[in-house]
Amino acid sequence: MKDAPIIQMEGIMKIFYSDEIETYALSDVYLTIKEGDFVSVAGPSGCGKSTLLSILGLLETPTDGRYCLDGLDVRDLGRNELAYVRNAEIGFIFQSFNLIGDLTVEENVELPLAYGGMPAEERKKRAKEVLERVEMSHRRNHLPYQLSGGQQQRVAVARALSTTPKILLADEPTGNLDSKNGDRVMDLLKELHGEGTTICMVTHDSRYNAHADRVLSLFDGRVVNEEGLVEVTV
Amino acid sequence: MYSKTGYDKVMSFFTNIRFAFRLLAKNPGSTIMAIVVMATGTGVAITMFAFVNGVLWSSPDFAKKGTIYNIDWVERDKYKNSQRVSPLDYEIFESESEQIDEMTAYMGWRAPVYNPSSDAFAKEYNYKRVSVNFFEFLGEKMHLGRSFLPEDVSREKDDTVVISHALWREQYGSNEEAVGSTLMVGGLPHKVVGVARPGFRFPDDNNLWKASDWPEPRMSTSPSGTGRRHWVKVYMLARLKEGVTPRQAEAELATIAEGIANEYPESNDNLLRMNVEPFTEWYIRDEVENRAYGLFLCSFLVLAVACANTFNLIMSRTASRTSELSIRSALGANRAHIVGQVVLDGLVLTSIGALGGVLIAGWSLKFIWSFFKSGYSDAYWWHMNLDAKVMGFVVGLVFVSSVVSSLVPGLRAARSATAENLKDDARTSSGLFVGSLSRLILGFQISASSVLAFVSILMLAVWYKSNTRPWPIEPTEILSTGFNLAGLGEDEHDPILVEAPRAMKERLEAYPGVDSVSFTIKAVCGIYGGTFLPFEMEGEDYENSRQKPKARVMGIDLGYEDVFDAKLLAGRMFNSLDTKETEAVCIVSKRFVDYYWPGEDPIGKRIRFNDIHWIRDGFLTVVGVMPKLTRAPLGKESSDLSNIGDIKIYTPLAQGTHAELGMQLRSKGDPRRWIPTIRRELAKIGPQYTLITNTVTVMEDEYRFLAKENLTLTMFGLFGAASLVLGAVGLYSIMSFDTGRRFREFGIRMALGADSKNVVYAVIRNGIATLAIGSSFGLVLGHTLTVLMQESLEINVMPLGFVYPVVVVLLITSMGVAMGVPAWKASRTPPSQALRVN
Ligand SMILES: Nc1ncnc2c1ncn2[C@@H]1O[C@H](COP(=O)(O)OP(=O)(O)O)[C@@H](O)[C@H]1O
Ligand SMILES: [Mg+2]
Description:
Chain A is α/β, with parallel strands linked by helices. Chain A has helices at 49-56, 79-89, 105-115, 120-133, 149-161, 179-194, 206-209, and strands at 5-18, 21-34, 38-42, 64-69, 72-73, 90-93, 167-171, 198-202, 214-219, 222-228. Chain A is globular, with a radius of gyration of 17 Å.
């Protein structure tokens, strides 16, 4: 069902309250992403990119507004239902890799599968598959600190892929990598997009914006500009 | 390189201290936790040390130096072991021993004291008969007057006494004319010859000393019998000749004692050996017994748990300082600097904790001391003060424990504080600190807490059981007191000794509200006590006194059945027709019948005592069977004769009485309100007579009787609670440190789809194995300890299986909370927040 909106945000607002200071991280954001889209989010530091991605990924709940994911209004979901949706539908890639230091490469990749309730044997098989895909299967018994940054990020991509999520959220996935490793990760994302995965990526590097179907510019918590190949629905 | 001046060193020390304080403020949670933990640990340790220092290790000071030994005559039968020596034998020991330098002796009880020249009430004081050389032996000089001279024991002169400084103050208002005045002691006039120096109360908490001419004491209630065993036995004290060891003295005294035993087999056939022991140790052993050492052990366990806690807390504090310490090392700090930083942090923490510990100890010592004083006859040299020795101990303790508990983390920090840590390459947790060592220590902590929890719950169970046993009487409505009518009438057979109390009973019962009054001999509270005496049954032949049956014997008078609701199981109670002129009678207890005459009808049987001055000579006919009036024992009925208080023979006062009487008064409501009335009525018999100090309800009497047990049990309970709290705090702090460290990990897990259950499991997974191993180890150890303790605490008769599940549940709850709270917190955190933490 290509072209159906998988993400629909209406009037999303996020306010952080700390020490009596209110930070408007997002104000009045309207956003629709169709299945199979590759959206790039750009903007200066602190403009709310990560916050937007957190809300998209159900890591954060909006202060106000409506967010439907795959036709499901997330406001109605409880803590554990959110966890279930995250596990089944969403894959995360972070700037700082976020592998679990005490788990091996393979265990890291298996973790979301385990949370999804996949039997151990299948998990192993699946982990092997995705690690092969990112060319990391030879390192599957290593601990994260034994890997270079680029390798760690590829493992993180494999982990995000393992559950075959509908949506991949990447927050500056190349931010900590040199250009060669960054390109490699971007190539992987492009490949996944080609296979039909919806991708929403934050990036500083304008070169990588070119990979995207749409580029969303944020400034001070608002969407200020959208350019892209596909019509924007507001 | 610059060489540092002293000023620089001092300044840098203060800079470091300032920094240490800033750190405390920065981590208020772990700071408060560490302080509470250290305060509890040091509090318990100081309390116990103050007790050991002020009681177990303390001894009275005398002008004359050198160890004073107590000499015990140890007998084979436990129950007969008076540990004292017949005054007749004292002289033999004194003249025959080569190894003893000097000897003295004393014996004593309490006596009513009345100063006829004042208008104060008579009052009861501790009172000792002592050898003439008593004060000389101790090297004591009098505050006023003189100590004893040989003429003080001559029959032609007045009886003489030395009074304590405190008695002098109370009875004479510190008037110097006290010396030479006459004081009524036990109803008889005595001349005061001296006032002891302030504070001197030897050998326990004594106030009156009377010279006695062993082996011929002039006793006011002299026994009618003349055999050796009729003498009240004495305590012997000795100084050994130079170079003589207590063992050598023991051997020599044993030879002398054997000679005595051979010469007088009838009274000395039970001799086992002689025991020579420093007086203070002997006194302690007699009074405090081994339980104090058990408590001492437990307190050190608590301290160890506290140290382990501090260790872990400092460990995690240090872990959270990794990057700060790394920056320091990058800036050129050497190993010693880094270690110093960590140790300083620990030292500041533990010092503050110790301050709190001193406060805790101050309160708990007050509490324990009040408990202790009501349970033990207090020696005047005992105290529980926080004196210089104890304070020194505290300082040492704090120093050692803080250095011990921060040195290891410090060394580890120094080893790992390399520039490596500064390269923030965003690799997640290193897990450098909370490693196997912390886990091992945590395991120890949990085991120790389990042991203590186990022991303390056991103690509380025993305590509860013993305090909730049912009463066959009304213990709160009965007042028990007593008085000594010495000097009343011609001799102890004078009928006035029965008539005066009975008249008093009549006067008291005329007051509306007073239900009934009764009098007893050898049993102040009316139900416990009695003298353990051999007797003969009619028709039996006994080769010697050892073959004779024994029972506890007490005298009772009319009204006993009203006060104690005693409904005889057979026969009749004594009545006004039982007099000197009528048939000699007695009543036996139900237990007596069960023990000596099972299945037989006791009524009409006859028994006889030999030479007991307050019991009529010749056969006594059993006329009644008394029900059990005492509380049920903690366990099953003891079968050891010596421990059985309930195998009793009751004799009627009217057929043989005693100057020392117990008195019981029963009234509706609190019977203590009648004390002034009783005093007034007693004064009508004579102004020199007074109630014994221990005038309390039967219930209070029981509490005092149980005070020792209650003290022990309370302390075990406190230690158990303290250690359980410490164990839980330890687990909590480790868990929350671990959770804090792994905060980001939980964020990642949640992003990957972990639900609350998964997160909680991820948190406690590490702790559970430690908890399981630690607590099962602790339970096994606790069980072993209990088995060992059962013997000494006489709880082997109680079924205690229920303690195990209780301990397990308690452990699981407290440790579960300690682990669960951080886990729950972690699972509640919004994942984005957890991910933002770097
Ligand atoms: N948990 C938080 N508490 C308070 N303020 C926050 C929190 N998270 C983000 N912010 C603020 O919200 C704004 C947007 O942050 P973020 O989305 O991380 O920006 P970006 O990813 O675009 O750099 C910033 O001003 C940031 O300081
Ligand atoms: Mg960001």
